[in-house]
Structure formats: structure tokens, C-alpha cells
TrEMBL record:
Pfam families membership: Response_reg
PROSITE patterns: RESPONSE_REGULATORY
Highest classification ranks of the organism: Eukaryota, Viridiplantae, Streptophyta, Embryophyta, Tracheophyta
Domain Response regulatory intervals: 30-145
InterPro entries documented for this protein: ARR-like, CheY-like_superfamily, Sig_transdc_resp-reg_receiver
PANTHER family per record: TWO-COMPONENT RESPONSE REGULATOR, TWO-COMPONENT RESPONSE REGULATOR ARR2
CDD domains listed in its UniProt record: REC_typeB_ARR-like
Source species of the chain: Gossypium mustelinum (Cotton)
Residues bearing PTM 4-aspartylphosphate: 81
Organism domain of life: Eukaryota
Protein name, as recorded: Response regulatory domain-containing protein
Keywords: Nucleus, Phosphoprotein, Transcription, Transcription regulation, Two-component regulatory system
Length: 153
């Protein structure tokens, strides 16, 4: 999937391997990353690919929401920046939570307690402060496992 039309862009990069959904480090976890900063998107893509995750990146929240709606069940987790011009990460999180069953991690350089708590209150499974360490990204699959486990009971 690749598109670019001035209304936001989206690109996909994948690595070899497939995740079987069991409680182990999964190669092939399908991650949608949303950030209006192209440099951040490139850094996240590189780090996530190093973790052997399949990465799709969008530079606008509205584009990401369209991609999620058009390709249901093709993503395991969403990582979204909080502060974006078209739609903030909180609004994107509300849409995702109301329309689909995906864990969402919010990311931001904004570490103010009220912003972090807003993310948790809105249903984010985690709130990461930029710059994010690769060690943290290696463990995001655990959010997917927890979400799937909660939904089986």
C-alpha cells in the first residue's frame, strides 16, 4: 500500500516473518505509526523494522483512520503522536476505540502529567515520551497479547 496525494500519505515497509499470536517475541507484528513529523516517521520505521515488525506509516491522523477503516484486521497495534494539526492523537484514539478493537500507544515529547493522564483516560494502552528507546518498542507486542487475552474472557 502506497499513496501520496497531498491529503496525507501512507507507506508500508515489512520485514520477513509472521506473528503467530502466541506469547513470544513476534516477528511480523503489524504496526501502524502516525506522526506529522516525517523525521519521526523515518526513525520509528527504522527502529520498528529492526524489531522485525511490519510497518505502515501515515503522516496525518485522518489518513490513518481511513487506512484502518479500509484495511480492518490488517494491523495489530497503532502508535500515534499526540499533537498533530489535522486531528490530535486523542481524537484518533477515540475513533479507533469506538470502531475497532486495536491497542493504541500514544507518543509525544509532552510529558505533562495531565496530558499523559488524558491519554490513559481515553484508553491508550501506553503513553511513551519521545525520544523512544528501541528496547521499549521491542516490547509493544505485549500490549497486543494482553488485549487479545482480555477479549477471550
Amino acid at each position: 500500500m502506497n499513496s501520496s496525494n497531498g491529503n496525507g500519505s501512507m507507506s508500508t515497509a515489512s520485514s520477513s516473518g509472521a506473528w503467530n499470536g502466541r506469547d513470544q517475541f513476534p516477528a511480523g507484528l503489524r504496526v501502524l505509526v502516525v506522526d506529522d513529523d516525517q523525521t519521526c516517521l523515518m526513525v520509528f520505521e527504522k527502529m520498528l523494522k529492526t524489531c522485525l515488525y511490519q510497518v505502515t506509516k501515515c503522516n496525518k491522523a485522518e489518513t490513518a483512520l481511513s487506512v484502518l477503516r479500509e484495511h480492518k484486521n490488517e494491523f495489530d497495534i497503532v502508535i500515534s503522536d499526540v499533537h498533530m494539526p489535522d486531528m490530535d492523537g486523542f481524537e484518533l484514539l477515540k475513533h479507533i476505540n469506538s470502531e475497532m478493537d486495536l491497542p493504541v500507544i500514544l507518543i509525544s515529547a509532552d510529558a505533562r502529567k495531565q496530558v499523559v493522564m488524558k491519554g490513559v483516560t481515553y484508553g491508550a494502552c501506553d503513553y511513551l515520551i519521545k525520544p523512544v528507546r528501541i528496547e521499549t518498542l521491542k516490547n509493544i507486542w505485549q500490549h497486543v497479547v494482553r488485549k487479545k487475552a482480555r477479549n477471550t474472557f
